[in-house]
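Obj: model holo form, ligand = S-adenosylmethionine.
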Amino acid sequence: MRTHFAAARTVLDLGFGAGLWFWASFLSSLKRLDGIDASPEALEEADRVFGLREVPAGYRLAHERASSTFTARDLDLLRAKRGRFFFLDYRAPWPAEIPRDHYDLVTEHGGGFGQMDADQQVVDAVGQCARILKPAGRLLFVNFVMTPRRIEKEVGKVPAPSFCLRQSLFEDAVARAGLSMVDFHTVERPPDMPGVETFFYGFARR
Ligand SMILES: C[S@@+](CC[C@H](N)C(=O)[O-])C[C@H]1O[C@@H](n2cnc3c(N)ncnc32)[C@H](O)[C@@H]1O
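Output (holo structure tokens):
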């Protein structure tokens, strides 16, 4: 993140979940962070970090490993970067308040690309990311490829979506969005995550 995104000022995090501020803590030039998530509870949970008396151990450890530091003062500064948050399923068209050609960086860290239920949804979501990026803006992704399956939800026995993401689909979605893949890495499945086949991460640019 330090090498490729040190200059990113305007950022949108897709499927931000509770990890919103953790990832943002590595963006040294951040001015404003917006986000989309289906769940308002995700933002409440993410914001709990600002009520803590000290920097969480996980932040400290991750910054130490990246040879940086992150202090309580940095946490205060991060809070001031809070932008606009949209609570919607981002597979639907995005509202006009998320402007085209506006963001230096869009991030998606396990924020739902791995849980779409049709190839076209992945293509459309990456396409929407591309449209809101500035020329030369970047899309950072950290995805996990799940073993395809259908799960019966306990309540009401409604079948949950199967998972369709795979490397070739993601690469195709990036190309169809008019983006260029710059960096792509694959990490083999950790032994303690049986439902996950592969992780991949990297970034594409407009
Ligand atoms: C694993 S969680 C959090 C990931 C988070 N980016 C992080 O690094 O901690 C995935 C989040 O993505 C959101 N999400 C998944 N699919 C989504 C969709 N289609 N539209 C909106 N939000 C979605 C979920 O609501 C959830 O908060």
